Every structure is written in C-alpha cells, then in structure tokens.
Amino acid sequence: MKWVLLILGILAFLIALAAAVGAMTPRDHHATRKARFKQPPEALYQAIAGPPGWRSEVKGFGQLAGGKWWEQDSHGQKIVYELVEDSPPVRRVVRIADRTLPFGGTWTFEIAPVAGGSDLRVREDGEIYNVIFRFMARFFFGYTSTIEGYLRDLGTKFGEAVTIEA
After folding, report:
1. CB 107 within 8 A of CB 121
2. What confidence tens digit (pLDDT) does each residue in 93-105 have?
C-alpha cells in the first residue's frame, strides 16, 4: 500500500509541476514555416480554400452557416473555423471559432509566386488557455508541428517532396 501511495504522490507532484511550468509559459505564441511548391499560386490557394480531405489529420468535415465550417481530427474532436480574410490567390486568414476549446487563434496563409512555382508561408498566432496543454505544447509537441504536417500533406497532395523552412 505504501508503494501505491508513493507512486500516486509522485504522479500528483509531476502534474502540479507541469501545471506550474505551464502557468509560467506565455499563453500566446507565434509560429511560422514556409515551403516551396511547383504549383502556381491559384492551385495552392484552391487546395487551401477547398475541402480539406487531402490532410492526413482530417477525418471528416462539413459546411456551416455564415462562412464557417467544421473539421474532425484523428482523435474525433470537431473544431469549428471561420474565414477572417480572403484575398485569392495570395492570402487567406482562418480563425478557430469555437471558444470552448483549450486553444485558439488564427492561421495566415501567404502565397507568393516564384520561378517555377510558389512559396507558401503559414503563420500561426495561437493561444493556449489550459496550462497543462501549454506545458505539453512547449516541451513535447512544439508550436510548429501542426504547420509542418500541413505543408507535408500539401506536398503529398501535389506529389511533391517539400523542404520546410523557418
């Protein structure tokens, strides 16, 4: 019985420590990544603005009223998004519209033509409200992993290997 109490005590201490460190970590963060594609800006924009079925993390999606839509991730969580700014084919800004989640923020997509294709820069201006999730994002997941996965999936959609830059 002593071992069980000791293990539970250590576990409680580690959770409290993670919460304390998470509380000291800034709520807001900014992350950006860029990749070059052999596609014209219009093709990249259409993929970004169109149905997200090409993204590996999206298992379902649907349209809602008022320029909003939902996406279901691989964990079964549905997230509602809204379009903030739309300037085809060079810029698109999307915001998480669900204020009940432990995170929120915007993604800004900027597409620039270059010789032989286009550069796509994705900027996340994120907020993480839950202190445990903030700790995990800072020390385990990283702030750029979702952007990098997005860019790799977009490359796969077009049959291209992409090099991701800061």
Report:
1. no
2. 999 999 899 999 9
Spatial strand order of the sheet with 58-63 comes to 58-63, 68-73, 78-87, 91-96, 103-114, 117-128, 28-37, 164-165
Which residues, in sequence order, are CB contacts of 165 under 8 Å at separation 6+?
Answer: 33, 34, 35
More confident residue, 74 or 112: 112
DSSP string, the chain: -HHHHHHHHHHHHHHHHHHHHHHHS-SEEEEEEEEEESS-HHHHHHHHHS--TTSTTEEEEEE-STTEEEEEETTS-EEEEEEEEEETTTEEEEEE--TTSSEEEEEEEEEEEETTEEEEEEEEEEEE-SHHHHHHIIIII-SSHHHHHHHHHHHHHTT----EE-
Say yes or no to pLDDT of 106 above 90. yes
Closest CA to 124 of 138, 109, 136: 109
Give the whole-angstrom CA distance, residue 108 versus residue 84.
Answer: 9
Instruction: Tell which residue, 58, 68, 66, has the closest CA to residue 97.
Output: 68
Nearest residue to 154 (alpha-carbon basis) of 43, 73, 80, 72: 43
> What is the CA 84 to chain-centroid distance, rounded?
16
